[in-house]
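Budget justification note: compute hours in this period were largely spent on complex prediction jobs such as the one shown. Inputs:
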Amino acid sequence: MRAGIVTRQIDLAALMSEVSKDGHGAVASFMGIVRSVNDGKSVTGIDYSAYDAMAEKEMSAIAAEAASRFLTDAIVVEHRTGYVTVGEASVGIVVSHERRAPALDAVRYIIEELKVRVPIWKCEHYADGSRDWVHAGTGAPRT
Amino acid sequence: MRAGIVTRQIDLAALMSEVSKDGHGAVASFMGIVRSVNDGKSVTGIDYSAYDAMAEKEMSAIAAEAASRFLTDAIVVEHRTGYVTVGEASVGIVVSHERRAPALDAVRYIIEELKVRVPIWKCEHYADGSRDWVHAGTGAPRT
Amino acid sequence: MTITVQLFASYAEVLGAKSIQIELPESATVKALMAAVSKFPGANRLPPHPLVAVNLSYANQDVVLKAGDEVALIPPVAGG
Amino acid sequence: MTITVQLFASYAEVLGAKSIQIELPESATVKALMAAVSKFPGANRLPPHPLVAVNLSYANQDVVLKAGDEVALIPPVAGG
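Corresponding output:
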């Protein structure tokens, strides 16, 4: 089990290898990708920042909760900070489990909790040169 | 949107590239992996066979249903046939969507339907040299 | 008419063939087909009501067959 | 005692600093801290009740602070 902030590209294949576990029959994953359009504006990238120490503590707590609820410790969560261009991943989650349903449930639990609890912020940069802090629950639906 | 039978290894990274779509913020995936142990027996691999034409028709129908229900056509589904050794993927599903919830819902829909409708069969090969046809709902919980 | 019935997986093993030929009157139903299948050697090891596919779709007992139909017996599926 | 308050994202912009120093009596609460923060230039652009973290955990208004505590204001989160 590992959860943390990274400042490089997220390599989902590597995360999958990391959680791969003998006896497990299911690997579920989620990647959040920077969208080219948000709230009708053309986006070039998102500058993610975090309160690193607290973010890693919360992410680790969420992973531990998922491990306990869904009975697998084959969990890895990475959130990237810094400038992430359109089409690149900002977050990657992989869960391996003996069975498929809890693997998918755990992935969903982790992304939903991460969105509401982990101190990470995004500043969207737009094609017109402007930028704006994005708060969850405002503007267009978020991924 | 693509759904089909393959006789080679499933490359999930390639499937992710295939569905990647400008404007989408979420990519969810599921892989089914051959487990080393099933029903208490040590497994060396599974020989998957299919009624190819019908399997591909059903898989395509399921993908189309998911596209219609969850409003994305960025869906790819591959099921492998032939002998698949322990730790290798038998099925790979990737869905890209603007938003995370329907991406995860679509993946779940596809794997659940695939398990009950698509004419694919597995013959498990065991470490002791024996083999057995595995039917869903018999023996140990399935992935 | 002659209907070719494709067999897969455990059913192919039980009946010892990848396909069998069944002679049926015109407009015979799936039910009639299955009655004929049940007389084949090994068919006693099939379940009471195997699933049948006609032209790549699951078909119930009342479906009427015609020459050239693609027919198959479908063992309990176990994909994934 | 002096409490250092870390600021992030939009709050750092609004207050024009990555952190601010607040002088408080011993055993002051988070509520007292926020009253002091509200006197800083730009603090009028903070929401009425910003989230506060003490030693990496979310803390309510009644939490009592001590010297050396790691304190931060947490803007509405937007990860993922």
